[in-house]
Amino acid sequence: MTRVPTARSSSLPHQEAVFRLSFKGQICVKDHVARSPQSIVTYRDLANDPLPHIQEATVAAMFIPPAARNAEQVLATALQEKLIAELAASDTLVIGAPMYNFNIPSTLKAWIDHVVVFGRTIGQGLFNDTRVIIASARGGAYGPVTPREGYDYQERYLRAVLGLIGLDDITFAHAEMRAAADGDPGLAQFASFATDSLSAAQATIQAEANRPRGLPTPGALS
Known about the structure:
Elements lengths: L2 E6 L6 H21 L4 E6 L10 H7 L8 H6 L1 H11 L3 E5 L9 H10 L15 E7 L15 H11 L5 E7 L2 H4 L9 H20 L12
Parallel strand pairs: 1-2, 1-3, 3-4, 4-5
């Protein structure tokens, strides 16, 4: 059975690009379900229904093996264990993650803090066969050879932190220069770049959705 958890971490900024990429991702998920009716999709809207950030009680309990936790500790880690179980049961993880201040929204960071846990999920092989598709909208351009390439802590961080728990089959679909698409007069010269970037990101999502399981992402072996 295929399980496809999806997470939308924000609705702002650059709503138009986030919506189009999220919509494209939803279409691909629906196409996948049509091809595999037994699939299960779990959707989390982290923007409108945010997860709580890690609390002191959770920190005190989450490093204790689940079988050794007392009733109070089980309660403190109940949500965390539910999120870990969702991810462990999945074949594909789809994340909508715009760039905020060169990084990710705190809503997505809260989810990450729940599922990336030393002694529980790191190095445990729970998610090794899960592939990840990340749809990203950015106000500027942060790709290779751009002036702001060094400010891209978003992709760098996500690859590093998800890699800790064995999620290393990751495809990013970046829609860049959304400020130009949103009408910033100082970036008008980049409007066509913004349009092309969004189209390329949508095509990346479609191609990844059609990639058979077990095949590497194009370029992953280069």
